[in-house]
């Protein structure tokens, strides 16, 4: 390679001349080393020299020299990282002090050679150092047997003995009628706390509440699907608040509001309520009683009987009493063959017809 430098270029300054000379020297040195390695077959290192050697070759006032000296100062000031906690941990370490509560996996605090992840090129899974897979899953490092025993011993001082009188489920339901049901989940996510754990269900028997007939009917109408007629149980679900304790308080508040609202009688309830709105059919307030009285009075007039019978006398007759019992049973209970047959027989007796019986031939 032919390289020529004009006198005008060399007289720009000693700094430029020095840098050009260094570049040429470095170029020729590397070419000679590579040529020698090709001819003699020796392994010659072509790596860059260290920082101190480069600094000595560079001018003090050049930009490269200032940058390299600044880098050297930073390297000298850099302190060595302290050892992780797992290295300094003793054999007598109390583990509940390391993991007192539920927390994400910390590789520097667990003195175990844990590996997890996909093995690359048929190798072993990645080590725990900076392993994101170990941070994704929940762990039970805070629930070791010594830690659980320690927690139970701390809570035992705050607990009282179970009352001896509450020796059966029936007695517990009598004295403690309200039940709160919650669920805890093992949640796989950034946080070990599942959002579904805040849901609270309040359950109580309707029969244990001090309600009159009107309040019971109105409370059932207000509850809607929250009341199970088969089990006579109220089930209120609260999940609108972010914390479980808040949902428990809201469920108790909701039950109190429903209870007090059921005892209030609005004017429209006395005038607009129909038989379909009632919980059960009542003979005295139903339309069937008025219809039966009208039919019986017409039958008496048709027979030519001039005796005036009161409504109480008509309702106390045997056929009307039979019809009353059969119709009330049919309205308040599921439809079966027995109550249908009783209702049919009562209607035939009421209108004075004889029921035909099937005769085997």
From TrEMBL:
Annotated Pfam families: MRP-S28
Ribosomal protein listed as a keyword: yes
Classification via InterPro entries: Ribosomal_mS35_mit (IPR019349), Ribosomal_mS35_mt (IPR039848)
Keyword Ribonucleoprotein: yes
Any one cellular-component term (Gene Ontology): mitochondrial small ribosomal subunit
GO annotation terms (biological process): mitochondrial translation
Domain Small ribosomal subunit protein mS35 mitochondrial conserved: 194-264
MF terms (GO), sorted A to Z: structural constituent of ribosome
Keyword line: Ribonucleoprotein, Ribosomal protein
Protein name: Putative 28S ribosomal protein S35, mitochondrial isoform X3
Species the sequence originates in: Stichopus japonicus (Sea cucumber)
């Amino acid at each position: 390679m032919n390289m020529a430098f004009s006198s005008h270029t060399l007289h720009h300054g000693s700094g430029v001349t020095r840098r050009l000379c260094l570049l040429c020297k470095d170029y020729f040195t590397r070419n000679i080393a590579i040529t020698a390695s090709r001819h003699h077959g020796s392994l010659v290192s072509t790596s860059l020299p260290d920082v101190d050697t480069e600094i000595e070759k560079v001018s003090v006032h050049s930009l490269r020299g200032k940058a390299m000296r600044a880098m050297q100062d930073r390297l000298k000031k850099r302190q060595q990282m302290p050892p992780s906690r797992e290295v300094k941990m003793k054999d007598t370490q109390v583990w509940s002090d390391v993991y007192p509560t539920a927390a994400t996996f910390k590789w520097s605090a667990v003195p175990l050679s844990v590996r997890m992840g996909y093995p690359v090129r048929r190798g072993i899974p990645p080590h725990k150092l900076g392993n994101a897979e170990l941070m994704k899953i929940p762990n039970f490092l805070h629930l070791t047997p010594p830690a659980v025993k320690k927690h139970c011993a701390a809570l035992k001082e705050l607990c009282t003995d179970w009352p001896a009188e509450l020796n059966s489920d029936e007695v517990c339901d009598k004295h403690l009628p309200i039940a709160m049901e919650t669920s805890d989940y093992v949640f796989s996510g950034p946080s070990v706390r599942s959002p579904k754990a805040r849901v609270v269900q309040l359950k109580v028997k309707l029969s244990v509440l001090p309600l009159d007939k009107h309040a019971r009917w109105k409370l059932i109408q207000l509850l809607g699907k929250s009341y199970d007629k088969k089990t006579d149980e109220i089930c209120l679900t609260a999940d609108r608040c972010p914390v479980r304790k808040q949902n428990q308080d809201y469920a108790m508040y909701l039950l109190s509001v429903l209870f007090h609202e059921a005892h209030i009688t609005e004017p429209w309830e006395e005038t607009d309520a129909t038989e379909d709105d009632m919980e059960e059919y009542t003979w005295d307030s139903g339309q069937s009683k008025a219809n039966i009285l009208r039919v019986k009075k017409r039958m008496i007039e048709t027979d030519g009987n001039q005796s005036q019978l009161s409504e109480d006398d008509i309702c106390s007759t045997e056929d009307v009493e039979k019809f009353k019992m059969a119709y009330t049973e049919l309205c308040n209970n599921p439809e079966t063959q027995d109550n249908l047959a009783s209702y049919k027989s009562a209607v035939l007796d009421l209108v004075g017809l004889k029921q035909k019986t099937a005769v085997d031939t």
